Automatic annotation (TrEMBL):
Keyword Cytoplasm attached: no
The name this protein goes by in its record: Putative nucleic acid-binding protein
Keywords per UniProt: Magnesium
PANTHER family: EXONUCLEASE VAPC9, RIBONUCLEASE VAPC3
Xref: Pfam families: PIN
Domain PIN span(s) in chain numbering: 27-141
Organism: Azoarcus indigens
Length: 151
């Protein structure tokens, strides 16, 4: 009778740290991103919500972040303003065009600024959650999504 010794090979899986799964989308407004970029007190909470997400915003976010930086610089925090903008350049963020009629409709329905309506409109269009520290916008988003059974 023949006997054979079987030695099982050790399995080695060497994996590149690339992301395979799609990160869930999150529409992020200026208040949340500015908290992270300019090291605001809300930074830890904001960073926790952004982690592992694909970030989306209307194109106007660039203007709003620059406005925050300008206010920081005018208040004497020039270094913070410059560093925040440099960090912003490194943020992986998908910028989206806006639909003016949708903005007007949402702004009127929820008594929002058209700027805030842009974030709500984008979240609605993408079927994604909206992260904001703006209480008025947050309440409008909750009402909007609950009215549609999305929240």
């Amino acid at each position: 009778m023949l006997t054979a010794t079987t030695t099982l090979a050790s399995l080695i899986v060497a994996e590149n740290p690339a992301r395979y799964a799609v990160e869930p989308p999150l529409v992020v407004d200026c208040s949340v991103l500015a908290a992270v970029l300019f090291d605001e007190p809300e930074r830890p909470l904001a960073a926790e919500q952004l982690a592992g997400r694909s970030l989306h915003a209307p194109w106007l976010l660039d203007v709003e972040i620059a406005s925050v930086a300008a206010k920081k610089a005018a208040a004497g925090a020039t270094d913070s303003a410059w560093l925040g903008l440099q960090d912003y350049d490194c943020v992986e963020l998908v910028r989206h065009a806006v639909e003016p009629l949708a903005l007007l409709e949402l702004a009127q329905r929820y008594r929002l600024t058209v700027y805030d309506a842009a974030y709500l409109s984008l979240a609605d269009r993408l079927g994604a959650p909206l992260a904001t520290f703006d209480q008025k916008l947050g309440r409008a988003a909750l009402a909007h999504f609950q009215g549609r059974g999305l929240a």
